Amino acid sequence: MEKLINKKNIAIIAIIGFFLISLSYFLISKSNKDTEKYFDIYLASLYNEDIQDIDQKMTYLSKIEDPNVSFFADLNLASIENLDKYEKLDRDIILLKKAIIDLDPGTLKSLSLDENFIFSDIAKIYYLNLDINNFDIIYQDNSEKIENFFIKAISRLKNENS
Predict the structure, then answer these.
(1) Number of domains present in the structure of the chain
(2) Is residue 75 part of a domain?
(3) Which domain holds residue 140?
(4) Binning pLDDT at 50, 70 and 90, where does residue 64 land?
(5) Which end of the chain is more exposed for a tag (fewer CB within 10 A), N or C?
(6) What percent of the chain has pLDDT over 70?
(7) What is the model's pTM?
(8) What gap in Å lies between CA 137 and CA 141, rounded to an integer?
(9) Would you give the end-to-end CA distance of the chain in angstroms?
């Protein structure tokens, strides 16, 4: 037993241990480098418009579990596939962008009528922009106190046309 525990064996075990720790550190840091590289490409795309394969890189970022990284990619792609990983504000921003890009009347209507949706006034504006007759759908009893300037203007225009 004394022959197994000597300075030479301890030195060899220490060198192998140091090598394994160093190797694992570099492998972990390399996997994070791809994410950082693509995130940097996304940030650069805010200033430069000739980024190649940006959609593939955005899709890669969107699939990352870290919501701090994937949020910008999901927002860019208007992807609502992974909404459960975001907080309410981030989730509502992505939903609003998707609704605005698609200009889907059903989605805009449901977001407009959702009292828990943070940006319901903005959704109402886009829904009313699609068709002024949607005003009666949004404000069925017309007794709701309207504080938004644009919606007040639509209400006034609707009343003048009636």
Answers:
(1) 1
(2) no
(3) 87-162
(4) confident
(5) N
(6) 77
(7) 0.61
(8) 9
(9) 101
